[in-house]
Amino acid sequence: MAKQKDIDSTPWEPYARAGARIVRVRTRELFSHAASVLDTEDIERVHDMRVASRRLRAVLEIFAACFPKAEYRSVLRDVKRLADALGERRDPDVHIAAMQAFAADLAAVNRPGIERLTEDLRGRQARGNEILAAELERVRERDLHGRLIALCDAADAALPADSAEEPLAGGAADGEVTVAAEDAAADESQMPGGAADAAVAVAAADLAGAPSDNGADGRGAA
């Protein structure tokens, strides 16, 4: 599986500048996996692109306030559609691999039933590939890559001309930190809304070196 790029930032980098820069990186990662993603003989390609789509969605949601609202909503909607289409292909890939591993440990007399199930799953895989192929064509026609970059350019353009990277009062000490909030946000997408919001608030407070609203240790009241 392809590893995502670690992205460094300083605590006093303007929020919109950091958001635009990080979204550009995650956009490049997403589209770098597009080549041969429809090849069912190499199921890691679609896996890598699906993971990249979830990371991109996470940073878009974290930095939502940095982008023009109308353009942002349209881009986020298309990123979600692409992630869903990647999931339609990825799910049967995983199930087929699991069935094949299971069948390898069975006596030959017990394998026909597993092989029948595997064939059914290959039908789902083929349908998932058709869905993904159609969505990739839609992504191309709607120039999702170009719109993502334009969104980042708009965030940069909205910054004051004299904006500078200066330490914030009460912020973290001088130095660089690794921006990994999108990883937490991708995982927290399965949480109830309140829990996800609280977790993001704690992560943001930790990055800023400030106490969170959920208790001194950031874990919340018992």
SSE layout and pairings?
Blueprint: E1 7-9, H1 15-32, H2 43-62, H3 69-104, H4 111-141, H5 144-157, E2 177-179, H6 181-188, H7 193-208
Helix pairs in contact: 1-2, 1-5, 2-3, 2-6, 3-4, 3-5, 6-7
Descriptive terms for the model:
disordered C terminus, 7 helices, CHAD domain, mainly alpha, two-stranded antiparallel sheet, 222 residues
Discrete helix count: 7
Determine the fraction of residues in helical runs and give it as a percent range. Answer: 55-70%
Query: How many strands, what sense, and barrel or not for the largest sheet?
Result: 2 strands, antiparallel
Question: Based on the structure given, which CATH architecture of the domain at 14-157 is correct?
Answer: Alpha solenoid
Distance between the termini: 39 Å
Radius of gyration: 21 Å
CATH class of the domain at 14-157: Mainly Alpha
Shape verdict: elongated
**Unreliable sequence segments:** 167-181, 187-222
Give the mean pLDDT: 79
Strand/helix succession = EHHHHHEHH
Structural class: mainly alpha
Strand order of the largest sheet: 1-2
The CATH homology group name of the domain at 14-157? CHAD domain
Please state roughly what percent of the residues sit in beta strands, choosing from under 5%, 5-15%, 15-25%, 25-35%, 35-45% or over 45%: under 5%
